[in-house]
Amino acid sequence: MAFISDRMARIKPSPTMAMTARAAELRAEGRDVISLSAGEPDFDTPVHIREAAKAAIDAGHTRYTVVDGMPSLKRAIAAKFARENGLDYAPAQITVGTGGKQILFNALMATLDQGDEVIVPAPYWVSYPDMVLLAGGRPVVIECGIEHGFRLTPDALEAAITPRTKWLILNSPSNPSGAGYSRARIQALSDVLLRHPHVWILSDDIYEHLVFDGFEFATPAQVEPRLKNRILTMNGVSKSYAMTGWRIGYGAGPESLIRAMAKLQSQSTSNPCSISQHAAEAAL
Ligand SMILES: Cc1ncc(COP(=O)(O)O)c(C=O)c1O
What we know:
Layout: H1 6-9, H2 15-28, H3 47-58, H4 71-85, E1 94-97, H5 99-111, E2 117-122, H6 127-134, E3 138-143, H7 154-160, E4 165-171, H8 183-194, E5 200-204, H9 220-223, E6 231-236, E7 249-252, H10 255-266, H11 274-283
Parallel strand pairs: 2-3, 2-4, 4-5, 5-6
Antiparallel strand pairs: 1-7, 6-7
Helix pairs in contact: 3-11, 4-11, 5-6, 5-10, 7-8
The structure holds pyridoxal-5'-phosphate.
């Protein structure tokens, strides 16, 4: 009997993290390295956010908080959704974790049973399939070629859906391709999903603010409100506010899903860093 679980054999270490570590090693040896690995903004965390963190330490905000986020931070996140996305989420529909990564992980762990399928358009961010596998699910990778601008088409989505499909993971703008989905493209995918009420959308909006050439960001819950009760809208402060090391991400969706994700977090990491939560509140 092997001591390390079969579960661990199903996944590989994050290649991005390995590349980042290797680049740091080479830099330490004095080599001039341009690392195209982890998505790190090219500016520092803004001063007012850093000051908010220092003030939080001095004010003694150094203890456990509510498992999935302080009420004041959830209110700030609700205000962000209303202000930037025209989305109305109550604090009870919002959950905060240790990075967007934990939000995705919690969502998949809280919903997938053995053999459940998750549609992952390729090229994809390296962690999606491994997270699905860890949770016992089956990643269904759809190749989205250059002829479609590396975007999932409605026909390809329709063809990939089976009775076992639980989620479509949609990442716009996408890591690694940079492809973004316009409102019209999101609407076309939504029209497919309206015909398949058992499929939910996990919308990874982490690169919302990193858009170019006049591209207008849109998110599925805003584009098709009839799908809102089966969408988890995920975002975080890592990329928008250059806070990758602070580890704060959040998700918003139906209360039953949010409660299941918080239950999982209560038995794993508990609350995200209290000081980072205060910093994120200042950012948002
Ligand atoms: C597409 C995508 N989603 C989610 C994340 C997770 O970001 P974090 O956990 O720092 O919030 C990343 C990080 O690189 C990413 O590229």
